[in-house]
Amino acid sequence: MADLLAMLKERQIRDIIAYLNHGDKIMPAIDTESGMAYYNVGNTKLDISVIDSLIGCGLLKDSGSSSLASCPVCGNMEFNVELVCPTHGVTLQKEEIYEEPRTGFIGTIDKFILKDSKTLTSPVDKKEITRSSIVKRSYWFRCSVGGEVVNNPKIVLHCLKGHDFEIIQANIVEIHRFIPDESKLKFAVDYIKFLEFASDFMKERGYNEVDNRLAGASKVTYTLDAVYRKGTETLALSVMSGGNSSLMGVISMLPEIYDLKQANVVDFAVVFIPSVGLDVTSVLERYGVSIISANSFEDAIEALKRSIIATSQQKISNQ
Ligand SMILES: [Zn+2]
Ligand SMILES: [Zn+2]
User: Fold this and answer.
1) For the CA of 160, the nearest ligand
2) Could you tell me the distance, in angstroms and rounded to a whole number, from the CA of residue 73 to the centre of ligand 2?
3) What spacing in Å lies between the alpha carbon of 133 and ligand 1's midpoint?
4) Among candidates 294, 151, 267, which has minimal Cα distance to 202?
5) How many angstroms does the Cα of residue 150 sit away from the middle of ligand 2?
6) Which of 25, 79, 112, 309 places its Cα 20 to 30 Å from the Cα of 71?
7) Structural domains of the chain sorted by starting position, each given as residue range(s) with its CATH number in brackets
């Protein structure tokens, strides 16, 4: 989940997660200038590079592609289809063709004179027949102006923005279908819930959540998962992928922690999901970093709640 965690530091990615969790689908659209496909989710336009990164970290899966027609004027992919007479340019009527097997007669339903809703009259020998004694065979298109049967109707598309065009004039665009991976999406949603809880938790302690980019003493800017501020006190929160491989990750992060701690007296808290061993926590504790080590974000929230109880009990015992 390390790559996904890195992406979740970006607000735009968190917005995309919120839309996907809300059930919004990634919808294709066509850029009218370039004729190229792009994708939307909710109110966010997705850059192809963002989609590639989301696929790279396993959050999105490409579930196949198809070639779709779009309006050559506005790029719209929603349109009505009309069948038109190639000679007279008018809409064709569809007529169903019936056969009466007893006599071999073939024709439209109006050739069998309707007696009532259940019985008809055969046009051949004028005998009364039942509805079940005729069989639907096919249909044809008839021109309402010339009255002729049309075998080669012209297909005209009406884009919902009012542009008419023939199928050969349409733009053909390759559209992909992207679907979220359920377990990765849940992880990302739980991450956001945890940050919301942490934000409220810090607010109760007089901290406001501020922009999650902080400059260190070296002037290098780091992107954290959340930054909280109360007066001149700043607390930086970093969420890291725990488990067995986290020691190397923590060691590579030490310069960042050191650099930030040198600037504006920054306090630092690291949340590990899943939990880590003492080898990792002891390294960070030497740097004065607060640690939450939990197997899930739900557990991390519980750990924060327990610390509320611990602090209030401490207050009581101090009185
Ligand atoms: Zn159009
Ligand atoms: Zn016609």
Assistant:
1) 1
2) 28
3) 47
4) 267
5) 7
6) 25
7) 2-77+167-180 (no CATH), 86-152 (no CATH), 185-318 (3.40.1350.10)
pLDDT (tens digit per residue) in 109-166: 888 887 777 788 999 999 999 888 899 998 999 999 999 999 999 999 999 899 999 9
- C-alpha of residue 157 to centroid of ligand 1, in Å: 10
Render pLDDT for 270-280 as a digit per residue (tens, 0 to 9).
Answer: 999 999 999 89
Contact 232, 264 (CB under 8 A): yes
What percentage of the chain exceeds 70 in pLDDT?
94
Are 105 and 122 contacting, i.e. CB atoms less than 8 angstroms apart? yes
How close is the Cα of 48 to the center of ligand 1, in Å?
Answer: 24
Distance 38 CA to ligand 1 centre (A): 17
Q: How far apart are CA 156 and CA 154, in angstroms?
A: 6
Compute the distance from residue 92 Cα to the ligand 2 centre, in Å: 8
Cα(155) to ligand 2 centroid in Å equals: 14
What's the 158 CA to ligand 2 centre distance in angstroms? 20
Q: Which ligand is nearest to the CA of 91?
A: 2
- pLDDT tens, 182-193? 999 999 999 999
Whole-number Å distance, alpha carbon 71 to ligand 1 midpoint, is 5
Confidence of residue 217 (pLDDT cuts 50, 70, 90): very high
Alpha carbons 74 and 164: distance in angstroms, whole number = 11
**pLDDT at residue number 319:** 47
| Ligand 2 centroid – CA 154 distance (Å) | 11
Q: What is the arithmetic mean of pLDDT over 159-176? A: 90
